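@channel sequence for tomorrow's demo:
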Amino acid sequence: MIKKQETMILSEYTGIYDLVVPKDNMLRKINELIDFSFVYDELSNKYCSNNGRNAIDPIRMFKYLLLKSIFDLSDVDVVERSKYDMSFKYFLDMAPEESVIDSSSLTKFRRLRLKDINILDMLINKTVEIALEKGIIKSNSIIVDATHTSARYNQKSPIEILKERSKKLRKSVYEIDENIKKTLPKKNLTDDIESEIRYCQRLVKSIEKNDVVSSYPKVKEKLNTLKENLDDNIYHMQASADADARIGHKSADSSFFGYKTHIAMTEERIITAATITTGEKNDGKELEALITKSKEAGMNVETVIGDAAYSEKGNIEFANKNNIKLVSKLNPSVTQGFRKKEDEFQFNKDAGMYVCKEGHMAIRKARQGKKNVAANQMDTYYFDINRCSICPQKEGCYKDGAKSKTYSVTIKSNIHKSQIEFQKTEYFKEKSKERYKIEAKNSELKHRHGYDIASSSGLIAMKMQGALAIFTVNVKRILKLLG
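structure tokens (generated this afternoon):
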């Protein structure tokens, strides 16, 4: 059963907050900035209104998850810190002497209460609404990009993952007390997973016996992470990798196993929309969704800024149809007409014909493809085979006995031609300079809020992680701009 939490905390100790949580504390500012009742309104139908025990207030549960994202903590650590950190208790609307929840409640809240909720759009739209109300967003442009997140259970074997986690734990312990090495169990040197599990269990018990060392936050966090793996996930890790994660490519020679978050952001660095997909998805295919979601959040989108991944023909058509300027450079293969062997054939603009590397000019040209449809058309240039048959450079160019020698160039559509002209304008060049901002935002998500690695497995969990991380960076950005 659920009932709305009283906004006034009835405790004789609430005055402590005025002493220990300063006015400029970030969590105090967030509480003052945001009316979190929207969480209750969104989740109230997930609870029974007249039967059963009183549930923990959903706003408080949501705030626990938000603290996890802000400070990049595990479930266990965020609850533990809430016992003694007065800024956490203040943020959670708790009395100073009030008891915290059991960390397992957060798992139940995520699985049962947040199920089937479009939390990603809900949280982003809320922050955009606040930014617009405060007059922070003044631009009519959005910058688009995609960032990758590696799966928690990547393509390393389970034993590799456990070895990596135990190594990080030992390293943090040695930084505090080098002599503790003598008391720790011997490392497992075999490739047997059961032996590694037993070693990790002994390592955990050994470190936990040392109350001083295990109480250090940097040790405790790594200790809790390893324990979670051993208690809950190791057999899942043995069975399979993350079932939803896919292999994506960051460049021609580098790949990752995980997910992609496609982001739209204003020039003021407020994220206005996001879609989260598996790692193999194409960046450009998400542009229409990002524009549509940004508009639904309240943005007036006049310009979209992105890299060449967003300049495919369908996106240009969508932008033109909606009177949006697409500041995205065409792929060089488009601007050059999909020419093959560019270094071997040069265009003579005076003759309107191509010339081969031996200096022979084409004798005629013909256009192929549907009439009046520039897309998929090409110009084919025909060379004199009598010359080609005796050419000293014919190897690899002309095959003996062939009845013709041609060179073809794909014709650019009118849409591409207009985009090429737009690329030459000062407006395009100036707006292109704004694109670096979203790369900095991606870096902030990864390095300050743990977005480089998924906190759990599955696309649904990834969307929840993304929603909380984006909500966090948006709120922090709003506070900074208001500051």
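heads up for whoever presents: The chain has a mean pLDDT of 85.
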